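Need a sequence for this fold. Nothing fancy.
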Protein backbone atom coordinates (compact mmCIF):
# COMPACT_ATOMS: atom_id res chain seq x y z
CA UNK A 1 0.00 0.00 0.00
CA UNK A 2 1.68 3.27 -1.08
CA UNK A 3 1.64 6.38 1.11
CA UNK A 4 -1.16 7.87 -1.00
CA UNK A 5 -3.35 4.91 -0.09
CA UNK A 6 -2.70 5.54 3.61
CA UNK A 7 -4.07 9.07 3.39
CA UNK A 8 -6.93 8.06 1.09
CA UNK A 9 -8.07 5.34 3.48
CA UNK A 10 -7.71 7.63 6.51
CA UNK A 11 -9.81 10.33 4.87
CA UNK A 12 -12.45 7.75 3.98
CA UNK A 13 -12.42 5.97 7.34
CA UNK A 14 -12.58 9.27 9.23
CA UNK A 15 -15.70 10.23 7.26
CA UNK A 16 -13.99 13.24 5.66
CA UNK A 17 -14.15 11.67 2.21
CA UNK A 18 -17.65 10.54 1.23
CA UNK A 19 -19.26 11.05 4.66
CA UNK A 20 -21.78 8.32 5.31
CA UNK A 21 -23.23 9.19 8.72
CA UNK A 22 -26.19 11.40 9.57
CA UNK A 23 -25.94 12.84 13.11
CA UNK A 24 -23.25 14.27 15.43
CA UNK A 25 -23.88 11.36 17.80
CA UNK A 26 -23.14 8.86 15.01
CA UNK A 27 -19.87 10.60 14.08
CA UNK A 28 -18.63 10.71 17.68
CA UNK A 29 -19.58 7.06 18.22
CA UNK A 30 -17.86 6.04 14.99
CA UNK A 31 -14.61 7.79 15.93
CA UNK A 32 -14.78 6.61 19.55
CA UNK A 33 -14.05 10.09 20.90
CA UNK A 34 -13.22 13.46 19.34
CA UNK A 35 -10.71 15.80 20.95
CA UNK A 36 -12.59 18.94 21.94
CA UNK A 37 -10.64 21.40 24.05
CA UNK A 38 -11.18 23.86 21.18
CA UNK A 39 -14.97 23.72 21.35
CA UNK A 40 -15.70 25.76 18.23
CA UNK A 41 -13.12 23.80 16.25
CA UNK A 42 -14.45 20.47 17.48
CA UNK A 43 -17.93 21.40 16.27
CA UNK A 44 -16.47 22.09 12.81
CA UNK A 45 -14.63 18.75 13.00
CA UNK A 46 -18.02 17.05 13.34
CA UNK A 47 -19.61 19.31 10.74
CA UNK A 48 -17.07 18.33 8.09
CA UNK A 49 -17.96 14.69 8.61
CA UNK A 50 -21.67 15.25 7.98
CA UNK A 51 -23.60 16.55 5.00
CA UNK A 52 -25.50 19.80 5.26
CA UNK A 53 -25.24 20.42 9.00
CA UNK A 54 -24.54 23.79 10.59
CA UNK A 55 -22.80 24.98 13.72
CA UNK A 56 -26.26 25.54 15.20
CA UNK A 57 -27.14 21.89 14.56
CA UNK A 58 -24.05 20.69 16.45
CA UNK A 59 -24.74 23.16 19.26
CA UNK A 60 -28.29 21.84 19.56
CA UNK A 61 -27.02 18.26 19.80
CA UNK A 62 -24.71 19.37 22.62
CA UNK A 63 -27.49 21.27 24.39
CA UNK A 64 -29.74 18.22 24.23
CA UNK A 65 -27.01 15.92 25.56
CA UNK A 66 -26.78 13.87 22.38
CA UNK A 67 -23.03 14.48 22.51
CA UNK A 68 -21.13 15.17 25.73
CA UNK A 69 -17.81 16.84 26.52
CA UNK A 70 -15.58 15.55 29.30
CA UNK A 71 -12.00 14.67 30.21
CA UNK A 72 -11.30 11.13 29.04
CA UNK A 73 -8.43 9.04 27.58
CA UNK A 74 -5.85 11.82 27.94
CA UNK A 75 -5.84 14.88 30.23
CA UNK A 76 -7.95 16.90 27.80
CA UNK A 77 -11.55 17.32 26.74
CA UNK A 78 -13.19 15.02 24.23
CA UNK A 79 -16.64 14.73 22.74
CA UNK A 80 -18.13 11.33 23.59
CA UNK A 81 -21.61 9.88 23.29
CA UNK A 82 -23.88 9.44 26.30
CA UNK A 83 -24.02 5.73 25.52
CA UNK A 84 -20.22 5.34 25.66
CA UNK A 85 -19.10 7.83 28.30
CA UNK A 86 -19.10 5.53 31.33
CA UNK A 87 -17.21 2.57 29.87
CA UNK A 88 -14.67 4.92 28.29
CA UNK A 89 -14.06 6.53 31.67
CA UNK A 90 -13.79 3.18 33.43
CA UNK A 91 -11.27 2.01 30.83
CA UNK A 92 -9.02 5.08 30.75
CA UNK A 93 -9.47 7.15 33.94
CA UNK A 94 -6.76 5.35 35.90
CA UNK A 95 -4.20 6.30 33.25
CA UNK A 96 -5.31 9.94 33.26
CA UNK A 97 -5.19 10.03 37.06
CA UNK A 98 -1.64 8.67 36.92
CA UNK A 99 -0.65 11.48 34.55
CA UNK A 100 -2.35 14.01 36.83
CA UNK A 101 -0.70 12.61 39.95
CA UNK A 102 2.11 15.15 40.10
CA UNK A 103 -0.34 18.05 39.95
CA UNK A 104 -2.61 16.43 42.51
CA UNK A 105 0.30 16.31 44.94
CA UNK A 106 1.47 19.83 44.09
CA UNK A 107 -2.02 21.20 44.72
CA UNK A 108 -2.46 19.13 47.91
CA UNK A 109 -5.32 17.09 46.50
CA UNK A 110 -5.56 13.60 47.98
CA UNK A 111 -8.15 10.83 47.94
CA UNK A 112 -9.76 11.96 51.19
CA UNK A 113 -10.25 15.44 49.79
CA UNK A 114 -11.64 14.13 46.51
CA UNK A 115 -14.28 12.21 48.49
CA UNK A 116 -15.33 15.51 50.07
CA UNK A 117 -15.31 17.47 46.81
CA UNK A 118 -17.27 14.81 44.95
CA UNK A 119 -19.84 14.64 47.74
CA UNK A 120 -20.32 18.42 47.72
CA UNK A 121 -20.66 18.48 43.93
CA UNK A 122 -23.20 15.64 43.94
CA UNK A 123 -25.38 17.40 46.51
CA UNK A 124 -25.25 20.67 44.58
CA UNK A 125 -26.21 19.14 41.23
CA UNK A 126 -28.89 16.66 42.28
CA UNK A 127 -32.28 17.09 40.66
CA UNK A 128 -31.11 17.98 37.17
CA UNK A 129 -29.31 21.18 38.11
CA UNK A 130 -26.48 22.43 35.93
CA UNK A 131 -23.83 24.77 37.33
CA UNK A 132 -20.86 26.61 35.88
CA UNK A 133 -17.36 26.03 37.17
CA UNK A 134 -17.51 29.35 39.02
CA UNK A 135 -20.73 28.29 40.71
CA UNK A 136 -19.14 24.96 41.68
CA UNK A 137 -16.26 26.91 43.22
CA UNK A 138 -18.78 28.66 45.45
CA UNK A 139 -20.31 25.32 46.44
CA UNK A 140 -16.90 23.94 47.38
CA UNK A 141 -15.90 27.03 49.32
CA UNK A 142 -19.13 26.79 51.33
CA UNK A 143 -18.03 23.24 52.19
CA UNK A 144 -14.76 24.65 53.52
CA UNK A 145 -12.64 23.57 50.54
CA UNK A 146 -10.19 25.91 48.83
CA UNK A 147 -11.24 25.84 45.18
CA UNK A 148 -9.66 28.41 42.91
CA UNK A 149 -7.37 28.53 39.90
CA UNK A 150 -5.73 25.26 38.95
CA UNK A 151 -6.94 23.61 42.12
CA UNK A 152 -10.55 24.10 41.09
CA UNK A 153 -9.76 22.82 37.60
CA UNK A 154 -8.29 19.58 38.90
CA UNK A 155 -11.11 19.08 41.40
CA UNK A 156 -13.70 19.26 38.63
CA UNK A 157 -11.46 17.21 36.33
CA UNK A 158 -11.34 14.47 38.97
CA UNK A 159 -15.13 14.54 39.32
CA UNK A 160 -15.33 13.94 35.57
CA UNK A 161 -12.86 11.05 35.73
CA UNK A 162 -14.77 9.50 38.63
CA UNK A 163 -17.94 9.52 36.52
CA UNK A 164 -19.65 12.02 38.81
CA UNK A 165 -20.16 14.89 36.35
CA UNK A 166 -20.13 15.59 32.64
CA UNK A 167 -21.12 18.50 30.45
CA UNK A 168 -24.50 20.13 30.80
CA UNK A 169 -26.09 22.60 28.38
CA UNK A 170 -24.22 25.84 27.85
CA UNK A 171 -25.51 28.94 29.59
CA UNK A 172 -24.79 31.63 27.06
CA UNK A 173 -21.12 31.03 26.27
CA UNK A 174 -20.40 29.40 29.62
CA UNK A 175 -20.08 25.65 30.03
CA UNK A 176 -21.96 23.91 32.81
CA UNK A 177 -21.74 20.58 34.59
CA UNK A 178 -24.44 18.04 35.39
CA UNK A 179 -24.46 14.73 37.19
CA UNK A 180 -23.50 12.03 34.70
CA UNK A 181 -26.17 9.69 36.08
CA UNK A 182 -28.85 12.29 35.29
CA UNK A 183 -27.43 13.60 32.01
CA UNK A 184 -26.69 10.16 30.54
CA UNK A 185 -28.86 7.53 32.25
CA UNK A 186 -28.38 5.32 29.19
CA UNK A 187 -24.60 5.16 29.70
CA UNK A 188 -23.38 1.59 29.36
CA UNK A 189 -20.84 -0.22 31.51
CA UNK A 190 -18.57 -2.89 30.02
CA UNK A 191 -16.05 -5.20 31.60
CA UNK A 192 -12.42 -4.27 31.01
CA UNK A 193 -11.74 -6.75 28.22
CA UNK A 194 -14.92 -5.95 26.32
CA UNK A 195 -14.28 -2.20 26.61
CA UNK A 196 -10.67 -2.60 25.50
CA UNK A 197 -11.65 -4.68 22.49
CA UNK A 198 -14.40 -2.23 21.54
CA UNK A 199 -12.19 0.87 21.71
CA UNK A 200 -9.44 -0.90 19.77
CA UNK A 201 -11.87 -1.95 17.05
CA UNK A 202 -13.35 1.52 16.79
CA UNK A 203 -9.96 3.22 16.56
CA UNK A 204 -8.52 1.07 13.79
CA UNK A 205 -11.85 0.98 11.93
CA UNK A 206 -12.30 4.76 12.02
CA UNK A 207 -8.67 5.95 12.01
CA UNK A 208 -6.82 3.22 10.13
CA UNK A 209 -4.42 2.60 8.61
CA UNK A 210 -2.74 3.20 11.97
CA UNK A 211 -0.02 1.63 14.09
CA UNK A 212 0.01 0.26 17.62
CA UNK A 213 1.97 3.37 18.63
CA UNK A 214 -0.70 5.60 17.11
CA UNK A 215 -3.42 3.88 19.16
CA UNK A 216 -1.38 4.11 22.36
CA UNK A 217 -0.86 7.84 21.76
CA UNK A 218 -4.53 8.49 20.97
CA UNK A 219 -6.04 6.41 23.77
CA UNK A 220 -3.48 7.04 26.51
CA UNK A 221 -3.45 3.29 27.23
CA UNK A 222 -0.31 1.27 27.90
CA UNK A 223 1.35 -0.60 25.05
CA UNK A 224 0.47 -3.82 26.88
CA UNK A 225 -3.23 -2.92 26.91
CA UNK A 226 -3.07 -1.79 23.29
CA UNK A 227 -1.55 -5.10 22.19
CA UNK A 228 -4.13 -7.01 24.21
CA UNK A 229 -6.91 -5.01 22.59
CA UNK A 230 -5.45 -5.60 19.14
CA UNK A 231 -5.31 -9.35 19.75
CA UNK A 232 -9.06 -9.33 20.46
CA UNK A 233 -9.94 -7.03 17.53
CA UNK A 234 -7.75 -8.74 14.90
CA UNK A 235 -10.53 -10.84 13.32
CA UNK A 236 -12.16 -7.60 12.06
CA UNK A 237 -8.92 -5.96 10.88
CA UNK A 238 -6.28 -6.45 8.22
CA UNK A 239 -2.55 -5.90 8.57
CA UNK A 240 -0.41 -3.97 6.07
CA UNK A 241 3.36 -3.49 6.20
CA UNK A 242 4.51 -0.22 4.60
CA UNK A 243 8.12 0.98 4.67
CA UNK A 244 8.84 -1.45 7.48
CA UNK A 245 5.93 -0.27 9.67
CA UNK A 246 2.90 -2.38 10.53
CA UNK A 247 -0.48 -0.73 10.02
CA UNK A 248 -3.95 -2.01 10.89
CA UNK A 249 -7.27 -1.06 9.32
CA UNK A 250 -10.81 -2.30 8.84
CA UNK A 251 -10.96 -5.39 6.66
CA UNK A 252 -13.99 -4.16 4.71
CA UNK A 253 -12.78 -0.76 3.44
CA UNK A 254 -13.28 -0.36 -0.33
CA UNK A 255 -10.72 0.99 -2.78
CA UNK A 256 -10.63 4.77 -2.36
CA UNK A 257 -9.91 7.19 -5.21
CA UNK A 258 -9.79 10.76 -3.92
CA UNK A 259 -9.66 12.69 -7.14
CA UNK A 260 -7.38 15.73 -7.22
CA UNK A 261 -7.11 18.31 -5.91
CA UNK A 262 -9.27 17.52 -2.86
CA UNK A 263 -9.03 20.09 -0.07
CA UNK A 264 -10.09 20.22 3.57
CA UNK A 265 -9.91 23.07 6.04
CA UNK A 266 -9.39 21.17 9.29
CA UNK A 267 -9.77 22.81 12.71
CA UNK A 268 -7.20 22.77 15.51
CA UNK A 269 -6.79 19.29 17.04
CA UNK A 270 -8.74 17.56 14.28
CA UNK A 271 -8.60 13.77 14.51
CA UNK A 272 -6.89 13.61 11.10
CA UNK A 273 -3.85 15.34 12.61
CA UNK A 274 -4.03 14.67 16.36
CA UNK A 275 -4.74 10.94 16.39
CA UNK A 276 -1.35 9.71 15.13
CA UNK A 277 2.03 9.54 16.78
CA UNK A 278 3.69 9.42 13.35
CA UNK A 279 2.72 12.18 10.90
CA UNK A 280 5.00 11.11 8.06
CA UNK A 281 2.12 9.86 5.91
CA UNK A 282 0.41 13.26 5.91
CA UNK A 283 3.33 15.67 6.20
CA UNK A 284 6.19 15.91 3.71
CA UNK A 285 9.58 15.95 5.45
CA UNK A 286 10.39 19.17 3.58
CA UNK A 287 7.79 20.96 5.68
CA UNK A 288 8.43 19.22 9.00
CA UNK A 289 10.27 22.20 10.48
CA UNK A 290 7.54 24.65 9.43
CA UNK A 291 4.85 22.38 10.83
CA UNK A 292 6.67 21.49 14.05
CA UNK A 293 4.73 23.93 16.21
CA UNK A 294 1.62 24.25 14.06
CA UNK A 295 0.51 20.69 13.20
CA UNK A 296 -2.19 20.87 15.88
CA UNK A 297 -3.46 24.25 14.72
CA UNK A 298 -5.94 24.67 11.90
CA UNK A 299 -4.42 22.90 8.90
CA UNK A 300 -5.03 23.08 5.17
CA UNK A 301 -5.07 19.58 3.73
CA UNK A 302 -4.83 18.94 -0.01
CA UNK A 303 -4.96 15.40 -1.36
CA UNK A 304 -4.44 14.13 2.17
CA UNK A 305 -1.26 16.15 2.76
CA UNK A 306 -0.91 18.96 5.32
CA UNK A 307 0.25 21.93 3.23
CA UNK A 308 -0.17 24.86 5.58
CA UNK A 309 -2.13 26.51 8.36
CA UNK A 310 -5.17 28.72 8.49
CA UNK A 311 -7.07 30.75 11.02
CA UNK A 312 -10.34 32.62 11.12
CA UNK A 313 -11.46 35.92 12.62
CA UNK A 314 -14.91 37.46 12.75
CA UNK A 315 -15.65 40.97 11.54
CA UNK A 316 -18.78 42.88 10.47
CA UNK A 317 -20.98 39.81 10.22
CA UNK A 318 -18.48 37.80 8.18
CA UNK A 319 -15.70 35.29 8.77
CA UNK A 320 -12.25 36.26 7.49
CA UNK A 321 -9.86 33.46 6.53
CA UNK A 322 -6.09 33.89 6.67
CA UNK A 323 -3.74 31.27 5.25
CA UNK A 324 -0.07 30.37 5.71
CA UNK A 325 0.82 27.71 3.12
CA UNK A 326 4.11 25.85 3.41
CA UNK A 327 4.71 26.36 -0.32
CA UNK A 328 3.12 28.32 -3.18
CA UNK A 329 -0.25 26.83 -4.09
CA UNK A 330 -1.36 26.16 -7.64
CA UNK A 331 -4.49 27.80 -8.99
CA UNK A 332 -6.28 24.44 -8.80
CA UNK A 333 -5.25 23.99 -5.15
CA UNK A 334 -6.39 27.51 -4.30
CA UNK A 335 -9.70 26.82 -6.00
CA UNK A 336 -10.18 23.61 -4.01
CA UNK A 337 -9.38 25.43 -0.77
CA UNK A 338 -11.75 28.26 -1.72
CA UNK A 339 -14.52 25.67 -2.02
CA UNK A 340 -13.61 24.33 1.44
CA UNK A 341 -13.73 27.86 2.84
CA UNK A 342 -17.17 28.45 1.37
CA UNK A 343 -18.37 25.26 3.01
CA UNK A 344 -17.04 26.57 6.33
CA UNK A 345 -19.03 29.77 5.78
CA UNK A 346 -22.16 27.72 5.10
CA UNK A 347 -21.53 25.77 8.32
CA UNK A 348 -21.34 29.04 10.28
CA UNK A 349 -24.17 30.61 8.25
CA UNK A 350 -21.88 33.57 7.54
CA UNK A 351 -20.35 35.07 4.41
CA UNK A 352 -16.63 34.36 4.06
CA UNK A 353 -13.77 36.62 3.05
CA UNK A 354 -11.05 34.63 1.33
CA UNK A 355 -7.33 35.32 1.51
CA UNK A 356 -6.51 38.11 -0.94
CA UNK A 357 -4.62 35.79 -3.27
CA UNK A 358 -7.72 33.56 -3.60
CA UNK A 359 -10.30 36.29 -4.21
CA UNK A 360 -10.37 35.85 -7.95
CA UNK A 361 -11.39 32.21 -7.39
CA UNK A 362 -14.32 32.98 -5.08
CA UNK A 363 -17.00 32.83 -7.75
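Here you go.
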Amino acid sequence: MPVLDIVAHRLYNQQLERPRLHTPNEVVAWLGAVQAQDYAGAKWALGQRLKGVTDADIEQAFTEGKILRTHVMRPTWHFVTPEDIRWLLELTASRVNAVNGTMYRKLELDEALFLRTNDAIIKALQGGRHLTRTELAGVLEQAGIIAEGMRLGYIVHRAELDGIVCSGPRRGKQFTYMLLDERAPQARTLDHETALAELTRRFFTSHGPATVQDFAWWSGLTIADVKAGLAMAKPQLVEETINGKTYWLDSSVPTVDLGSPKAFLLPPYDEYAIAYRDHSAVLDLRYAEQAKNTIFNGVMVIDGQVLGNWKRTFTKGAVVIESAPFRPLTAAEQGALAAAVRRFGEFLDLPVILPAEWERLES
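For context: The domain at 18-183 is CATH 1.10.10.10 (Arc Repressor Mutant, subunit A).
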